[in-house]
Design goal:
Elements: H1 12-24, E1 28-31, E2 36-40, E3 43-48, E4 52-55, E5 62-66, E6 73-80, E7 87-94, E8 106-112, E9 120-123, E10 130-133, E11 136-137, E12 149-154, E13 158-162, E14 165-170, E15 173-178, E16 184-187, H2 211-216, E17 219-221, E18 226-235, E19 239-248, E20 251-260, E21 274-276, E22 282-285, E23 288-289
Antiparallel strand pairs: 1-4, 2-3, 2-10, 4-5, 5-9, 6-7, 7-8, 8-9, 10-11, 12-15, 13-14, 13-22, 14-17, 15-16, 16-21, 18-19, 19-20, 20-21, 22-23
Length: about 290
């Protein structure tokens, strides 16, 4: 007789989340008057001004959508979360002709028919082809309405080291202050030779700075220590980041540098600038070492 070990449901994480939200409630929930739209398989799944910001944890919110605002799709119950089956995992199936075509289901949807989230549907952010606030695409997750970004020019000297090796120095910087997060130091890449700097974004503000301005400050990034990385990441406040690895004296530090080729409008001042990961290298501000 062959025995098999029961496999954990692929929805186990959603069920755990739903049970926590049902028992304890979200950290915070607020209605928003913003127009929120979600696109799936070339259709608008919802287009609503009745969405909610729901903080499942303290860090940032998700959008929860009233079930009545789901258009053109039927909610298919799949896996109950509670004994009353009033909270459950579901999939969304298109209505109308051709609705049985494979691949058109939207899965891993949470439906709440009781509790503080009654009447709301949670759709995984990555499950949709696109999310919009008004006419602005959203990247990664919704923005927190209680957080902001300030980007300020600074001539304070930034020095970046790996061990005893200085890999970058600059006094022509942009300091990015983001609520509740540590300061990030962006520096221009204008001192890099064309051989090591073929990825310069021509639209970069600092790539257009006059030679006299660049020479007035210190800008030195030693790109001979870098190699391109295939990593990308999404930030709702800045856009899509691209990365570089550092290789210093035989030690590789993966994704130690990031930059934004085309940041969203509120972060435009850092376009094309390089930022070193404070937690992975030693960063000094006017000679004072930052905590890693």
């Amino acid at each position: 007789m062959v025995q098999t070990t029961p496999t954990k449901s692929s929805n186990a994480d959603l069920i755990d989340l739903a049970r926590s939200l049902t028992a304890n409630g979200p950290h915070k929930i607020e209605p928003t008057s913003r127009r929120v739209r979600g696109q799936f398989d070339a259709h608008w799944l919802f287009d609503t001004t009745s969405a909610y910001h729901v903080w499942e944890h303290p860090y940032y919110p998700q959008f929860y959508i009233p079930s009545s605002e789901i258009k053109g799709f039927r909610i298919i119950r799949e896996e109950a979360v509670d004994h009353d089956e009033r909270v459950y995992v579901a999939s969304l199936k298109p209505e109308g002709q051709g609705a049985d075509r494979e691949g058109r289901f939207l899965r891993r949807v949470l439906v709440f028919e009781q509790g503080r989230l009654e009447g709301l549907v949670r759709i995984e952010f990555k499950g949709l082809d696109a999310w919009y606030e008004e006419d602005q695409p959203i990247y990664g997750h919704p923005k927190d309405p209680y957080k902001r970004i300030d980007i300020l020019p600074s001539s304070r000297k930034i020095t970046v080291k790996v061990g005893d090796v200085v890999v970058a120095e600059s006094t022509l910087n942009m300091f990015l202050y983001e609520t509740m997060l540590r300061t990030r130091y962006y520096m221009p890449k204008t001192a890099v030779s064309p051989f090591h700097f073929s990825f310069l974004n021509p639209a970069s503000f600092f790539s257009l700075v006059t030679t006299s301005v660049v020479e007035a400050g210190l800008v030195q990034i030693k790109w001979q220590y870098t190699t391109p990385s295939s990593t990308t990441s999404l930030c709702p406040y800045k856009g899509t980041a691209e990365y570089y690895n550092l290789n210093v004296n035989g030690t590789e530090i993966k994704d130690a540098i990031w930059w934004y080729r085309s940041p969203i409008h509120e972060s435009a001042p850092i376009v094309g600038m390089a930022c070193f990961y404070n937690e992975k290298v030693d960063v000094f501000v006017d000679g004072v070492k930052e905590e890693n």
